[in-house]
Amino acid sequence: MKIAVLAGLSKGVANGGMAQFQEMMRQQLESSMHDELEKLLDTTTGAEREVSKKDFEGFKNLFHRFLQVKGPSVEWIKIQRPPEDSIQPYDKIAARGLPDNVANSLNKLVVVKLNGGLGTSMGCKGPKSLISVRNENTFLDLTVQQIEHLNKTYNTDVPLVLMNSFNTDEDTKKILQKYTHHRVKIHTFNQSRYPRVNKESLLPVSTNLSMNGQNAEGWYPPGHGDIYASFYNSGLLDQLIEQGKEYIFVSNIDNLGATVDLHILHHLVSQPNGKRCEFVMEVTDKTRADVKGGTLIQYEGKLRLLEIAQVPKAHVDEFKSVSKFKIFNTNNLWISLPAIKRLQEQNAMDMEIIVNPKTLDGGQNVIQLETAVGAAIKCFDNALGINVPRSRFLPVKTTSDLLLVMSNLYSLEAGSLTMSPKREFPTTPHVKLGSSFTKVQEYLIRFESIPDMLELDHLTVSGDVTFGKNVSLKGTVIIIANHGDRIDIPAGSMLENKIVSGNLRILDH
Q1: pLDDT at residue 1 is higher than 80
Q2: Which residues partner with 418 through β-bridges?
Q3: Binding site: which residues?
Q4: Residue 222: count of CB within 10 angstroms of its CB
Q5: Residue 86, Cβ neighbours under 10 Å: how many?
Q6: What is the pLDDT of residue 325?
Q7: What is the pTM for the complete model shown?
Q8: CA-to-CA distance for 247 and 261, rounded, in angstroms?
Q9: What is the rounded distance in angstroms from the CA atom of residue 329 to the CA atom of residue 386?
Q10: Which residues does the record give as substrate binding sites (predicted)?
């Protein structure tokens, strides 16, 4: 689209002057963008203006880089497998054991949860972190319980930091009052607010800074790569460094497997000063369900995250292959606080730009420029991948995931979910619930109680299906209600390797 703007205007220009002409057009686009941003700032005053001004500085930088990019950000031919020692097996890290004084390590740690997302994809209003996932506990409740348990067990002071977005900040802050008497200090800071850009003109679609009416659609939080700048700008980064904190453990708030791991923490804080590892990315073995996940590669001598959006179309199948790229990024990251401060102050945080096209309600085509937190791995010294067990990656993105974590496959203790020892295989079943289950409220109505799934391998449910109490599912179970039919699985049923079709015939699978 950007190339179209530049190329379209360059017809008839002699080849010799093409580069010069394109550079002139880039400058013109950039100048127009700066003028529009100034006009937006002039629509407000005071603190809001100052916050937006800081946000816009970051956006200008991103937009400038977006205009400079000429083609794909990676050359496929230069991609190499990471050297053996750059991705360590978790067992090797854990084999070193723990020190006598775990508290010393924990007091250097801050837990950061990415809390910018809404629950809209699961049919919920408000922040996703406030959806109940287990025994009336929300994602946020479980996070607070985990950290409080650490602080009580080891007599430490590990704080929780939430990176909110303008979508989640207000509702989250209201809820935080309920944790006042818990043994965990909670801080928040806000992601930036960037303007969505018209795909054709490459100018902001908003006419003022308000979030009301149609204007609300003109803004977006620019991906979790924004954590470095917004954390630094909030003043919280400096505050935590002054308190003696050295590392943050960052993860998505909807990943219930992302708990503080004492072995990884000890590995980080026990390194000699000159060889300090500034960035750890937890990766895990790829299955066919994870083919779109980012992977680690060696590129121009550095460990680097490769996302599917960066892959040339001709190589997408190769990228998805489980044999060539065997691991993927869980987005559980351990990052040095002083290193973030250094890179921010040197303006050396370099992350690939993700161009995310959207269509607004009125049909207008826009783009939003984003970055991913893991993409900064190449900027840090002595970066390392650790291949962790799959249990550290338990994201709840859909009601199918929710069914797994609500079931007897997992037990809950001190905010942490662990696979039941009664399950014979360590793998999670593959669950696919149809569109009648997409929204949490509809999903809850369809289960009188959550089925026993200890021996389940695969469940597919499609159409108007309900489950009575104390249903047990084993092996492969496929339930398909045809359009206009309804299937009620009776209370107490035990389905093992069964296909249940439209008129409730039960067949052996």
Answers
A1: no
A2: 411
A3: 128, 191, 223-224, 254, 397
A4: 26
A5: 15
A6: 87
A7: 0.92
A8: 13
A9: 10
A10: 224
